[in-house]
Amino acid sequence: LNGVKQREARGRAEPLLDAVGLLDRTATFPDRLSGGEQQRVAIARALVHDPLLVLADEPTGNLDEETGQQILALLDRLTRQAGKNLIMVTHSVEAASYADRILQLKDGNLV
User: Fold this and answer.
1) For 33-56, what is the mean pLDDT?
2) Is residue 1 one of the residues assigned to a domain?
3) Chain segment 57-106, per-residue pLDDT in tens
4) What is the domain extent for residue 44?
5) Coil, helix or strand at residue 10
6) Which residue spans within the chain are E strands per DSSP?
7) DSSP code of 30?
8) Alpha-carbon torsion 50, 46, 59, 21, what sign?
9) Domains in the chain: how many in total?
């Protein structure tokens, strides 16, 4: 975290890594993590700065169905618990089912 002392950064990151089930993997290099683990790290990284708005572009695009379900449930739970707004871009009907509101684009136009 830029501009944040190491102790504070660790104090903010560890609860999120624990929430995504990766607290025991903090010393692991990214290339040693599975696709699902990398997605969970991305979620923790997105939330560690405490943004009001979280943007997720195809958060399950490169994952198998089971891992994708876990990622969607996790993203939904963490953003709702923290009172965050989530904008997700997806082609997946299943991923869209987590939304409170769905907007569709067709041929570049909002329909």
Assistant:
1) 90
2) no
3) 998 888 888 888 888 998 899 889 989 999 999 999 999 999 999 999 99
4) 6-110
5) helix
6) 53-57, 85-89, 105-106, 109-110
7) G
8) negative
9) 1
- Look up the CATH number of the domain holding residue 56: 3.40.50.300
pTM of the model: 0.77
**Is the alpha carbon torsion for 102, 77, 46, 48 positive or negative?**
positive
Reference 40, options 25, 27, 52, 53; nearest CA is 25
SS3 111: coil
Contact 33, 15 (CB under 8 A): no
Instruction: Look up residue 68 and give its two tokens.
Output: 């994708």
Helix, coil or strand: residue 86: strand
For residue 47, tell me if it sits in a domain.
Answer: yes
Is there a domain that residue 70 lies in? yes
Question: Which residue from 9, 88, 16, 71 is spatially nearest to 47, judged by alpha carbons?
Answer: 16
Tokens representing 11? Answer: 């104090």
